[in-house]
Structures are given as C-alpha cells and as structure tokens.
Amino acid sequence: MGSDMNLALIHSTACRELLNEGDLEDAVRYCIAQGIEPPVPPCTSLSTDYERCVDVAKETLSDYGWWEKRLKVRSTRERRQAEMQEHSVAKSRSPSGAATC
Questions:
Q1: Contact 61/15 with Cβ under 8 angstroms?
Q2: CA distance 73 to 69
Q3: How far apart are alpha carbons 13 and 78 in whole angstroms?
Q4: Which of 1, 28, 60, 66 could make a disulfide contact with 39, Cβ separation 3.0–4.6 Å?
Q5: 81: exposed, middle or buried (C-beta count within 10 Å: 0-12, 13-18, 19+)?
Q6: pLDDT (tens digit, 9 = 90+) per residue, 40-96?
Q7: Is 11 left (phi over 0), alpha (psi -120 to 50) or beta?
Q8: Domain residue spans of the chain
Q9: How far is it, in rounded angstroms, from Cα 41 to Cα 56?
C-alpha cells in the first residue's frame, strides 16, 4: 500500500496548491478526476453555511490522511470488482450440463 501513501501525498499537495490559488472548484474537479468523491456537496454562495462548507472542503481536500483513506478504499473496491469479474468469467467458461453422447 506504499503507492497509496505516495499518491495521497501527491493529491493532497496538488489540492493544497489549487486551494492556495483560491480554486475550490478546481480542487473538487481534481478530486473527481481521481475517482474520489468530494468530501462535501458542492458549496453554493447562496447556502447559509457557505463559509463553513468552503472551510471543510479546503481542510479535507488538502489533508494527507483523508486522501490516504479514500485511496485505500478505492483500491480495495477495484480489487474486489476485478475478483468478481474474474470469478464470473471463470464461471461462464466452466462446462455446465454439457451434453453427453
């Protein structure tokens, strides 16, 4: 899982740089592009808790630990999906009720 740790550092740093430039939307898009669901629903300036929403998003998107956990979950999910696909392919290849002569 060392690669998840490296990726977590890369992604948290990339988001921190985007956020330092004031680009919350870009940081959220970056998160989505990595296959990770953003930490909060989109913040709209009409929301009563807009400032809090922005603060939570900024803190989370730039957090190494948050990225590490999400990447581990994504890796586990992808591995399980691959195993299930392999299992279903193997199952469809096995002869079932083949006619006998």
A1: yes
A2: 6
A3: 24
A4: 60
A5: exposed
A6: 777 777 778 888 888 888 899 999 999 999 999 999 999 999 998 888 877 776 665
A7: alpha
A8: 2-71
A9: 11
